[in-house]
Amino acid sequence: MTDNTPKPIAVVGVSALFPGSVDETGFWRDILAGTDLITDVPANHWLIEDYYDADPSAPDKTYAKRGAFIPAIDFDPVAWGVPPAIVPATDTTQLLALIVARRVLEDATAGQFEQLDRERVSVILGVTSAQELLGSMVSRLQRPVWTKALRDMGLPESQVQDACERIASHYVGWQESSFPGVLGNVVAGRIANRLDLGGTNCVTDAACASSFSSISMGVNELHLGQSDLVIAGGADTMNDIFMYMCFSKTPALSKSGDCRPFSDKADGTLLGEGIGMVALKRLADAERDRDRIYAVLKGIGSSSDGRGTTVYAPSAEGQAKALGRAYEQAGYSPQTVGLVEGHGTGTVAGDAAELEGLRLAFGESERAGYCALGSVKSQIGHTKAAAGAAGLFKVVMALHHKVLPPTIKVERPNAALAMQNGAFYLNTETRPWIQAPGVPRRASVSAFGFGGSNYHLALEEYPDESTAPRLDVLPDELVVLSAESVEALQQRCRELVPDEVEDGMLEYLARSSQQTFDHRAPFRLAIVAADSTQLHSKLEKAVTLLERAEAFSTPDGIDFGCTPLEGSLALVFSGQGSQYLQMGSGLAQHNPVARASWDRLAAVDTGRKIGTTGYCMGGPMVMRTVAAVPDRLGAGGTFHGGGLATEADDSPHLLIPDTTAQMLHCVAANDDENDPEAKITLREAYAAAAIPAEIEVYAGTMHGWCPPDSQVYNEAQAERAWSRLLVLFESALA
Questions:
Q1: Exactly one of 371, 382, 536, 590 is catalytic; which is it?
Q2: Which of 677, 664, 670 lies closest to 706 in space, CA to CA?
Q3: Could you point out which of 53, 297, 394, 398 has its C-alpha 20 to 30 Å from the C-alpha of 152?
Q4: Catalytic site residue from 343, 400, 536, 665
Q5: Backbone angles phi, psi at 670, to 5 degrees
Q6: pLDDT of 542-569, one tens digit each?
Q7: The pTM is what?
Q8: Residue 500 sits in the same domain as residue 627
Q9: What CATH number should be reported for the domain holding residue 323?
Q10: Quick check: is 382 catalytic?
Q11: Do residues 250 and 213 share a domain?
Q12: Each residue of 230-254: pLDDT tens digit?
């Protein structure tokens, strides 16, 4: 008997081109930073003075003048085998989609696209109707209308024809390639043609849910065995005046000029544009082929609204039906989901319907506020056919990086959210996604389209996060250099200052410098830089400062050491300085070891909620200075348990931060510190925490180092305190 149960689908590649950035790394960085990418309409789209009127009822005018727009992208037609002469007759979406498709396939094949067997590779994209170029081609055909109007004005025929010629010159002329150049289906067709793909190529149109209709069709191709790899997603660069007019006269655009999904101030959406794609593969095949796996697609739910008052009015019941079908296929309860990326357009009716649909689908729960809710539209507006692709990218990256991304522009939530009693809370800042072992992180994403097209995807993290690379979104990079003399170190600095600054240069230099750094070299330089320009400036400054041949440290992040390193490695935590909310949160976001420590603690029953702020039960801790850890910089050291072992030291030491003794005393609010029977030694507490026995432990306090036989209180308290301390140690050593 044939097993028709849908099998899990692996997301093995990602690619994105959305406002504010030119690739997926930049887009993810913008998402995490909560960057507002909505601006005034640029002149290369349409002129505000020509079409804007604050009065929504003004004929042939739009009351919106803001949106989100992708940056200028270099496109080399010759490199893509596209004759330069036909570029003006080819819609922008078709050309830019080539770039995004190639990137997603390069990612899916780990840079080995040329070796890929493409016979059963398909491309199915969400694209709505004809493309922007169609408007220009149709406008050129209005010459009879212009002619009649000019003749009715009594102008001489010569002036009539001259005026018509001038008007026509503003539009692209018809040529042989114009027909395919305006068609939406050729977005996929051109990808298959230029990249030589032998599987299915087509587009689907479910309005603003088009990306997910393409995902659904692509997954069916994989389930039926008709394709082995599918590119799916959405493409939409149609932010022309026609699209603004459509949304203005509905009306759905924000009168206040901003997009605020799920906010009590939401008054409409704003338009965005972009292209997003994922590469999909059967999970079993991806594991067999040792592919990169960013996340696992467990279920797809779709539905129609059925009969309603209007064809474009959203239905909570219809949406809830799609959600329920997704979780039924996924095989788990929605109450195990920790993140929902909503459709979240910011329209009053749309947000209200979606919140009610979520309530219907998730049902009642004893837990309140366990699931983060958000919408990337608060940052990039409504990207229409690509809206689902933008949301899916956000969710896939959130699962892969174990981070809860923010939704911006919400001071107070929509009243319908019922913040105190419902399952959802609006996540308004980036935070590490802490999850106790046993249940994987799960996230979902919705897309709903005009005409009652409802889609909901249910995804789950892949247990081995090392199979796919983490996108490099750290705000700074560390460049480390070593040499046998000051002169040699200066020369290395000069060699790293190229004539031109190139994209990605800083990341490359940081990575390569760390791989070659020798921490035992007599002269060592470390530079922290946010971008290539800053690095080059600091390198030049370092060359001058090195003339003194004395150790130095500058406030802007240049450190030079020239003292021989001997003895054991120590990690020093000063314990001084100001405290602040969310301390340690950034470390847990970017460092898997740090986050994993919090994950383990999430399963510990302490009677008090464990957060992700970097605070331990007895008080705050600050990590100020951390010595260079050898195995991060190529010296072959290893980290295990709660300590550090190096080649040069067979009995490593674990050095505990300032205020440790006080923290051990204050693990629980009701401890009786005067009870001598409750006292145990630090060594005993250390053993209770299951730290490897071969590691000596010294607890640092403001009054000096506490030896291992110092007394602390209550073995159970000590064990809990140690587990919290390990969070910081593992983080520092990662």
A1: 382
A2: 664
A3: 53
A4: 343
A5: -105, 15
A6: 999 999 888 888 888 898 988 776 654 4
A7: 0.82
A8: no
A9: 3.40.47.10
A10: yes
A11: yes
A12: 999 999 999 999 999 999 998 999 9
